[in-house]
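Hi C.,

You asked whether I'd gotten around to modeling the 326-residue construct. I have! Everything is below, sequence then structure, no commentary in between.
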Amino acid sequence: MVHLLEVNNLTVSYASAEGIHKALDTISFFIDKGESIGLVGESGSGKTTLGISMVKLLPSNAKYDTGRILYNGRDIVSANDRELRQIRGRDISIVFQDPLSSLDPLFTVGYQISEAVKAHNPDIKKNDRETRVLSMLGDVGLPEPEKIKDLYPHELSGGMRQRVMLAIALVNHPLLLIADEPTTALDVTIQAQIIDLIKYAKAHYDLTLLLITHDLGIAAELVDRIIVMYAGVIVEQGGAEEIFSKPYHPYTRALLMAIPELEDIAANAPSRLSAIPGNVRSHYDDYRGCRFYDRCAYRTKECRDREPDLTEYTKDHPARCIHPLL
């Protein structure tokens, strides 16, 4: 079976003044057409690097060390610029977490959506582009598209800018949408609106979704399968319902315990949150043992001596833990 997107043993490194460090370490997973996948983890886990790797947008100091990223059987890692231009924005689109820095401040939002159309439809007439721009602005829930198209990014609110970013990402009807922390900079009310918009877009455009987030609560709203990352590796993956009801890895459990209780939110009361002690290390190049060892409440000497493999303890639910919470 050919998956829509398949990542095989992907390792990516960054060069810095301190040396070369791995950001991703032998990552493997797949996405099938129509799926909604959540890529979850703290800042520094490697999830954003993985997202931009899939469209070959890594910064100049990053390097693919090993592995392949297959989109419909084609390897993105070895693709040339012409092949990438055909894929980006047409087959695979990405929405970043900060729309203000992603949008060009010198051009109106209508022009920027129109250019996205033109990039993959060079022969399309100007009037037809204009029609698609207005239709797209309406589809993402922006009022008065005729007025909005002539505004500049700084004239819009954060939620409106995120809707414009979604319009640019969706205007060519991609098969796969990568949404990188699409609600992070928004207040709770606007977050809920963007979540509803992504749900609508997924159904309306028959999208496959890869949601990158640190928030398992948002993932619960949007995805049916979850991949948990920590320190550049996958530590657990499985169906969303199973991950939420019976997490195997202590890190996944800790993330779930950090979600505010709904009754506390409803009562506007202080949430009973459980913080994860410690921090993610800057790198794990020379580290031996489980990467979560220093922060884990269930650690033993065996965990310090060797790094566990990603082991399938139940069907389609693997975890990288010597002592899984079965």
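If it helps when you're writing up: Residues 194 and 277 are 31 Å apart (CA to CA).

Thanks,
B.
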